[in-house]
Amino acid sequence: MTVNTHKGFAALNRRFILPELREAVRTVGADLVFLQEVLGTHSRHASRITDWPEAPHYEFLADSIWPQFAYGRNAVYPRGHHGNALLSKFPIVHHRNHDVSIEGPERRGLLHCALELPGRDLQVHAICVHLGLAEGHRRKQLELLCKIVEAEVPTESPLIVAGDFNDWRGRAHKVLDERIGLREVFLHAYGRAARTFPAHMPLLPLDRIYVRNAAIFAPLALPRRPWSHLSDHAPLVAEIQL
């Protein structure tokens, strides 16, 4: 599952909905949850919002369901920081956050985790993605993603790359397929990527789940409610058999 948490707030930042989001994510029960725009800390919100959790948001979301989690801090500001995170039901044996920020104020990262699954000799690699808003930035960040995969992921290892690509033009599909053999699950099943933004009436296909070395991969449908008011992005879910 991949979901942009919008820092725990509903669209337009009108309401803090992280507890509701946690319950919705729990209902799905995915083995792996890729999170973008997840807060590590925010001192101002913590002092003003009554149900603000003491733990970082990724720990609050993981709770007792996902015993393993990793966080990659991307954006740091005077009152706190946010980034990408991965929640996992399987051991995370190591993780590394790659800074892929280009020029300007946008801070972006790729969180790469290696997982151990029972009965598997090969490690499973998972990369949580949040690319930039500018197409020129995304083009350079896709190149960096390809180089990271080529350098750090064995060609025979299962690989899942998911997150918010901000790629409404669909330029990432060809690059990732030709360079590193990744296939997008919704594109493979339906001939086009899923529309995920804005969540209340999705028009743009910004979020993706790509896989490599998977025997079976298929998208799963989620109801519009409650997801349409839990973030500005609709989540994506897929079943992947390795």
Automatic annotation (TrEMBL):
Keywords: Endonuclease, Hydrolase, Nuclease. GO terms for molecular function: endonuclease activity. Residues 21-233 form the Endonuclease/exonuclease/phosphatase domain. InterPro entries: Endo/exonu/phosph_ase_sf (IPR036691), Endo/exonuclease/phosphatase (IPR005135), GPI-anchor_lipid_remodeler (IPR051916). The keyword Hydrolase applies. This is Endonuclease/exonuclease/phosphatase family protein. It comes from Variovorax dokdonensis.
